[in-house]
Amino acid sequence: MLNSITLVIAITLMYSTPMVFAGLGNLISEKTGVINIGVEGMMTIGAFTGAAVCYFTGNVWIGFLCAGIAGGFLAILHAVASILFQSDQTISGLVINLIGPGAALFISSLLFDGATSTQPVANKLPKIFGNGNIRGVLGNLNVDVTVVFAFVTAVFFIWLFYKTKWGLHLQAVGEHPAAADTMGIQVNKIRFICVIVSGILAGFGGATVTLGIVSQFTPTTIAGQGFISIAAVIFGKWTPHGAYGACLLFGFAQALTVLLGGGQSVIPSQLLAMFPYILTLIMLVLFVGRAVAPKASGKSYEKGSRL
Amino acid sequence: MYMNKIAQILKKSVFRTLAAIVLGLFVAGIILAVAGYPPLRSMLALGKGIFSSPKYVSNVLIKSTPIIFTGLSVAFAFKTGLFNIGVEGQFIVGCLASTLVGITLDLPPVIQVPLVLLAGLVAGAAYGGMIGVLKAKFGIHEVISGIMLNWIALYLSNYICILEPFRKGDSNGTYQVSEASKTLILGAWKNTDDGRNFLKGIPILGEAFLKTDVNIGFLAAVIMAILLAVLLKKTTKGFELRAVGYNKYSAEAVGIDIKKNIIDVMLISGAVAGLGAALYITGNTPHKITVLSAFEGMGINGLPVALIAGSSPVGCILSGLLFGGLMYGGQALQYEVGAPTEIINIVIGIIVFFVAIMKGVPRLLLKIPRRGGKHVK
What we know:
The complex is a heterodimer. Chain A is an all-alpha fold. Chain A has one domain (2-131, 143-288): ABC transporter involved in vitamin B12 uptake, BtuC, CATH 1.10.3470. Helices cover 71% and strands 0% of the residues of chain A. Chain A has helices at 2-31, 39-57, 60-84, 89-111, 136-140, 145-163, 165-175, 177-182, 187-213, 225-235, 240-261, 269-288. In chain A, 52% of the residues are buried. Chain B is an all-alpha fold. Chain B has a domain at 53-228 and 237-300. The model of chain B has no long low-confidence stretch (mean pLDDT 88). The interface between A and B is large, with 48 and 43 residues. Chain A: Keywords: Cell membrane, Membrane, Transmembrane, Transmembrane helix. Chain A: It is found in: Cell membrane. Chain A: It comes from Anaerosacchariphilus polymeriproducens. Chain A: The chain crosses the membrane at residues 6-27, 34-56, 62-84, 91-112, 145-162, 192-214, 220-236, 243-262, 274-293. Chain A: It is a multi-pass membrane protein.
């Protein structure tokens, strides 16, 4: 019994971690008023870059870092389009979702002789209790170190948003950019930084999949986790702790899918696979009610314009 | 002053789109060059892969048809302010429903074809309508619900297509739809000796008919585009829908029921995608569905088609052809210069990127003289 419970907890934590990273990334962008549906594409490029760099250098940390950088670079495109050129943020996010996977598969087939999947990496991210062969409950709970990183990032975000001046500025930019501007906050600069940070985090999120959960990148590695993390942000009412909790919930749904799907299951695996998505919809219907997005969400800001 | 001129030109959406396409191909050339492929030869190979034989041109039309339909679906919703990313799911359930009806029934073509098409249309409409209801009644953003429903549709389709009465033997797919359901032009006749000999005598069309699945889909897409354009521009309903899209508050103030309109838009949008799906199944080999490991992208590709077209229904035909041409011609890139076909997705992404930012370009260009003006004062 204890064994199953700890196993569920561990798998929940593992599967929620990529979404926590992407969700927090999406959150910091949305908080400043820039909608970012591009996290899916940023995760994909991160997942690919992490696996590819780790395969060639043999160092998992360099891979992880490069994944963040790749996500950040892709985010610059989104920032330039949506902030500098004031184009529609949903469209610009869609562009990221086209270019991210496109670039990942293109570069993959350049590097791996026409294959759209990378070779498996030699060493994966370390576990919290070390990589030794630990048995029993402790072994079950021996999750990737990224689980801890994700938690720390969430706590850091809570501190950042609610305890620091910078965090308040950031929220002011998302709620009332004109007022923030009057206070001397550089609206577009803050937005630019936050969009890039969101790309870096989404890139990390992608790498936690390819360097932690599985050990290679395939075209279906990132299959909607980015989008689910956006749902998690909405479900978590645009707060770091809410988003973190929602990601855990969706991770739990995936953990159940994994656990129930193994072996002789009564429920067909195809129906089980639907479960996280149906749960997301039901949760949104039941609990979201009137979740309030940052007021300036989706609106580009031009100095001197009236709201 | 030339800045001003460029700005004036770029205010016209047609020129913006053309500039975006040219820039997109240009950047693709740079990427290919960086990756070590000759850019000019690659572009020529691409062009050859699209235009150099009647078979190719015919295949581009056939390939473009489903994405024109999904593009129309997205464009229609977009005109009215909704981002129908759920079009992929609507396309999948459309394929599913039309296949099931096409397998189960075997009536004379005059009744069978409309029934099969109707099945796809109704399934797509119902699935799209769900997104509308979720948005209108529960305030759930259509992007989120659309994406969730896409995945649900994928697994639902995978589940049903290997169920007992539909699954063919031990394969991972269904039976073909009945012969009477097919929407091919000269479908059975061109495989007879008479048909083959007759078509061989016709220079260009003959080859196209013999070597490709010529079907009614493209014509249907053109008719659908015109119908949607008329609906949007010439009818009261279309006016209501556009009013909600432009400014929902003023629409509500003049007594338009916003919630009802949101649901209506999604019903129509889904129906268009579902019809496209039914025509895809009935008009293209293998005329059946199989278990999918990932999205085919027929719906998702409709998004860039609609965006490049600036959401104009008639424009969707052109941008759909562009997209279909790039996808089909992209294969020639692979066998002529060895460049991975994945470059095509990047090209499309870059074109949409330029389409998106071009709107902001005139504003940025015109701003420059204003800044100088400040110092003169």
